Amino acid sequence: MICESLETNIKILSLHRLVAKLVVLDMLFFPYFRLLHVSFSAPVIFLCIALDRRKISEIKLVFLCMLFLVFSVMSVIAGYMWNASFDLHRDVFGLSIILLYMAYYYFYIRNMIFLKDFVFQALRLYLWMAFAFAVLFILAPQSFFNIRVFWQMNANVIQYKQAYFSRYIFLLSDPNNCSCAISSVLFALLVLDKKMSNYLKIVYASISLFTCVVTLSATGFVVMSVGLIFYFFIYEKRILLNEKILKLIILCGVLFFAVAVIVFKKYNLMDSIFGVAIQRISNNLLGGNESSGSIRLKYWIDTIRNFEWYKYVVLGRGATVRGIEGFKYPGYSGHFQLILYYGLISYISYMYIFFRNPRSMKWKSYICLFPALICFSVNVGLEDYRTSGIFALVAAMYHSCVFGRENNA
């Protein structure tokens, strides 16, 4: 009898491991379930969580998730009662994405004991795939979009002089979210994957930086550049003291520059894609278009001035809240967005769940969550399903490694 019970438990655990790995692959690589615009694993994780018979050790996490759920639902009800322009479809969709984000995070935390090594391998493949698609995007844009339609139907189009260009967004829906997701995956590998050699760290940093530049995202470029400078000069400065690795860095830099010049000249892209990149980065860093840092700062200041914040301490008004001047999102920042949508209590719960750092942990390791925090702070990626799922995976890996949850799952 005991042997039969043990055999059954082993089979259940093996099935659970298989499902957990498929969930990771689904979030990173598989196409959306077109009818619901989410991945196929979305309904599966709720079933897995419900059938999980293991002891719940993440009591605080569960409590905070329930706290967020209660106050966010109450905020949606408050929006229905007090907001004349209430949009039920938008409110349900916006809230469901965040709740899915939390469900994925909890699922990853619970299963990281047998997911960690597999996730590292999957994230390495993810960076190589993003790099390969970026190269294809430069050399044969139409071929890239013909392949990408399998995952996404939309494209992000910008104008440069008299021409229009579709920006590289890989499998995601926005260039800024794409570049920040790539940065999150990279720094998770650099900091948490202890088996990665110093040489591989240089290689993955190089291909990720290249991919980030191709997105033409000034936000992503700054996040990636600052993160790499911090990592190699503060977190792992010993790497740069190795003469062989330093030569490899120089070689990678020269190689990428040479390939870029050859490709741009051969395909007459010097005045098109290269020009777009230079124009966007200079405008975003120095000001001059609607995506610039100065415009975002203006949105933030005007948002602080134009909303009566004391009304949002307990409850928000749901996802129907609009920003100033008719802008779709309030404040162009996840912080403002969450507080206005679901209230300050929900916001604090959310921030603690995903962006906390233990007192015993050195802050330099927080570079893992730095790209996600910046993307959340200066972008409106709360409703980007795949980006949220990747951030949830990275946060779960970081907190699992830091707190040793893989030993307590």
Mean pLDDT: 75
Strand order, biggest sheet? 1-2
Shape: globular
The main sheet comes to: 2 strands, antiparallel
Q: Please give the count of helices.
A: 15
Q: Uncertain regions: pLDDT < 50 for 5+ in a row?
A: 157-164, 405-409
Number of strands: 4
**Termini Cα gap:** 26 Å
How would you describe what is shown here?
By secondary structure, this protein is mainly alpha-helical. It has one domain. It is built from 15 helices and four strands. The relative contact order is 0.14. The C terminus is likely disordered.
List keywords for this structure.
single chain; 409 residues; mainly alpha; two-stranded antiparallel sheet; two-stranded antiparallel ribbon; 4 strands; 67% helix; globular
Short description:
The protein has 409 residues and is mostly helical. The chain has helices at 2-28, 42-51, 59-82, 88-111, 116-139, 141-148, 175-192, 198-214, 218-235, 243-266, 273-286, 293-306, 334-355, 370-378, 385-403; strands at 32-33, 38-39, 156-160, 163-167. α7 (175-192) runs antiparallel to α8 (198-214) and α8 (198-214) packs parallel to α10.
Write the layout of secondary structure elements.
Layout (H helix, E strand, L loop, with lengths): L1 H27 L3 E2 L4 E2 L2 H10 L7 H24 L5 H24 L4 H24 L1 H8 L7 E5 L2 E5 L7 H18 L5 H17 L3 H18 L7 H24 L6 H14 L6 H14 L27 H22 L14 H9 L6 H19 L6
Antiparallel strand pairs: 1-2, 3-4
